[in-house]
Amino acid sequence: MPASDILPDFLIEQIDTPIGLTFVVTDRAGTLRAVDWDDHAERLHRQLERRYGQDLSLSNADTPSTARRALEAYFAGELSALDGISTEGAGTDFQRDVWRALRDIPVGQTISYGELARRIDRPKAVRAVGLANGANPIPIVVPCHRVIGANALLTGFGGGLDRKRWLLAHEGVDAARWGEPRQAALF
Where does the chain cross the membrane (predicted)? Predict the structure, then answer.
């Protein structure tokens, strides 16, 4: 049996972060496929199966991945550490366009869903952009937390608004300008 037939499709690692135990999923080539928190482990497994099939093999990594080391550096204060991580979210073409645009939002800045729609040349697709943002399987690295409501209110985040608030503050975004957070996205 060839070695590729016995290797897992994906490798999983756990890192302890200031916002909770975090799972990091990479493929054999080291491409980051998913990030989620331990309190959302079931969601992580459902998303992986839906995107890659139920026969997906997931094994513990033997050595720290580049993605894990970059995330640890980010949480330690090296905010640019995430810039070079290779990612693949296995979404639709539209979702991938949104996720690529998210990676162009600089650290310490936020934009609205409407602005994100304009950046991908789909200004009328604001709600679809919000849905694609919410379906992002690689939060933090594909920084969906940097998207806020048009009225500067914090809006939904798969990891919870407390984590979103922490990530933005970690990146130096002034939290005083946010109104009361709302769980539902405001477009």
Answer: none
